[in-house]
Amino acid sequence: MFKVVSRQTIRKxxxxxxxxxxxxxxxxxxxFKNRVAVISDLWTAGHQRRGYMxxxxxxxxxxxxxxxxxxxxxxxxxxxTAAVLCEVxxxxxxxxxxxxxISTITLDNCTTNDKAVEExxxxxDSSSLMVGGKLLHMRCCAHILNLIVRDGLAVLGDGIERVxxxxxxxxxxxxxxxxxxxxxxLMNIEYSKRLSLDCKTRWNSTYIMLSIAVMxxxxxxRLSLREKQFNCCPSTADxxxxxxxxxxxxxxxxxxTLWSGKHYVxxxxxxxxxxxxxxxxxxxxxxxxxxxxxxxxxxxxxHEVMQQMSEEMKKKFDKYWSDVHGLMAIATVLDPRYKLHxxxxxxxxxxxxxxxxxxxxxxxxxxxxxxxEYQDDSSAGTxxxxxxxxxxxxGEDEVFDIFDQYMSSQPTASxxxxxxxxxLYLEEPTLPRxxxxxxxxxxxxxxxxYPTLQLIAHDILxxxxxxxxxxxxxxxxxxxxxxxxxxxxxKCVEAIMCMQAWCNADMLGDNNSSLSTTFQTxxxxxxxxxxxxxxxxxxx
Length: 540
Hints:
single chain; alpha/beta; 22 helices
């Protein structure tokens, strides 16, 4: 007869499995030769009142596969000051042997994180960082977009209040919702998307609410004639204002969704999209006199509010524009569909021909600096490898050792080589723009002609432009640290979170397929009957 194991045994087995797999991951990164992009975010467990930091590594492995890997889900003691965050993050990097292999660290935009990165740079060896650490800090672009849109929406006031009130009225009770749905059927309008009331502090929910509401504009008008209590039906001007707002928010919504992807490269997508935002905001803030004359007096005031919203967006955009676009511009150059042509075209449109030449020259200079740095590192690695093997060589091999030592003492023409390699890449025709283009696969095979650029692409392309990968761990942790499991110890929480993430990321290997299946079954089933049993135990 099967004997049910105790909770202590289950806890012990989970932690032991995690420690075994963690040791394997530590060894893997200890032997990893390329750079790793790190993202981190902080989350407070509501039922525990404890802070946890998710640290995720993004890199391209030796087979040129894009990987996203949760390193730690570590408990962070209060208060969450810059010094505390810096210390925890530094310990994670040292534990996984990444302190000399970092490309960038992506964090949310706040002063605490800014100061934490500054303190972290003091702990790291600047010679091991890209361009001496100038490119270490990456701000979460999704967070910056959120700040831009939030500042813009702050000036709207009651511009969409009647639309919001209408959605709230017909979704307030099941009876009203059923009547709304019935009216849709009577009018032969497909009720494909359910009415959704927004959260005023989340602009993306406002966009979703408006985009759904305008689909049923005629239904709202019909119900306003039949339902006496429904006295907040939007006017024609309200709907026109909502449609214009949807068009503007859609740009930010689509780009945020695109940047949040984890299974494809996002660095090469950043620069064209952020320039598109800049151009759109400039267009919104400069309406022509004829456009204003054609506006009806009823909606002219709303149009002025919309223009004010665009101006607030532009202020916030200009504030953060210079903080993130330098490294991302290099990623655009590394896209064989764009190269320098995309920079010249967009900078020219934004700043004019003369300023565009200056900006492009600055990006090209930064790329040359990276090329020289990578070539020097590659040469140093080759020299060290030859020295290590010198002991076992005799006879003819020693002749080549002497020759190699002589050549290493001669002046190298690294600058000329770098110039030639970069120019060769830039002079080749750009590739056609296709949606199914795989930039990683191109650099894996097409980049063989440009060995130094290939190394740079290997390290820059996996850099994430948002912290979504770390934030996604919090949705799972919120279910694990439910009211019924609020007393899970931090060590056990980390073991469960990491094991699930490693299973999903395929990091456990084929030999652990049964282990992966077990964790997936236990963690993916929210309504598992065992949950009620586990909730009776308090001491984890």
